[in-house]
Amino acid sequence: MSLRAWSLLLVLSGTIFLEGIDVAMLAVAVPTVRADLGLTTGTAAWVMSSYVLGYAGFTLLGGRAADLLGRRRMLLGWLTVFLLFSGLGGLADEGWTLILARFVTGVAAAFMTPAALSIITTSYEEGPQRNQALLVFAGTAAGGFSLGLVIGGLLTQLGWRWVFFAPVLLAAAILAAAIALVPKEPRPARAKGSTGAGGPVGAKGSGALRGGFDLGGALTAAGAMLLLAYGIIRLEHGLTGWQVTAAVLAAGLLLAAAFVAVERRAAAPLVRLGILRKASLVRADLGALLFVGSFFGFQFVATLYLQELRGWSSLQTALALLVMGVDAVLAPTLTPRLVARFGNARVILGGFVLAVVSYALFLPVGPDWSYAAMFPTLFLTGLAFALAYGPLTIAGTEGIAEEEQGLAGGLLTTATQFGSAVGIAAVTAVYGLAGGGLDGFRAALVVPLVMVVLGAVITATGVRGGAARTPEAPETPEAAEVPLPATNVTV
Question: Is the whole-model pTM more than 0.85?
Answer without folding.
Answer: no
